[in-house]
Amino acid sequence: MNERCLKSYVLDKSGKEHILHFAPEDWLITDMDSFVNNKPSNIFIDVIEDSEVSILTTSNYKNINQLSYDDLLEQNKKLVNNLITTNMRLANLLSATAEERYLDFIETYPTLVQRLPLKLIASYLGMTPEYLSDVRRKLARK
User: Fold this and answer.
1) What is the rounded CA–CA span in Å between residue 97 and residue 102?
2) Rounded distance between C-alpha atoms, residue 28 and residue 53, angstroms
3) Does residue 119 contact residue 85 with C-beta atoms inside 8 Å?
4) In the predicted model, what is the mean pLDDT of residues 117-129?
5) Which residue in 61, 111, 140, 141 has a CA-CA distance of 20 to 30 Å to 75?
6) pLDDT digits (tens, 9 = 90+) for 79-117
7) Do residues 24 and 111 lie in contact, with contact meaning Cβ atoms separated by under 8 Å?
8) How many CB atoms are closer than 10 A to CB 7?
């Protein structure tokens, strides 16, 4: 299996990284505001695992009429999935327990649980790696 993964994140004023999204194989990752409004991004995107990426910019986006209908449909599906994941993530950060957030992570990114370092998963979930270890131990006992 070709395992590939990227992450998007922001840095706070102290330089701490806060992960917004993961993009495993066949997912799309972007700063939609930067892309659509052609402005500098406040979001960083890094490769976690060796990956082959396609970069779409507003300048080459104008050539969208060169894409096939199937390609456009596929990109639209990926954007919709990204939006759904973002909405679920935001709702979970605001209202779910740490256990619920971790279980949702497992459901959303089943292939990443064993592949990513604990510190990346913890950052995504808004907790320390130590607290995430406690959550995982608690769930393992259930």
Assistant:
1) 9
2) 10
3) no
4) 94
5) 111
6) 888 888 888 989 999 999 999 999 999 999 999 999 999
7) yes
8) 20
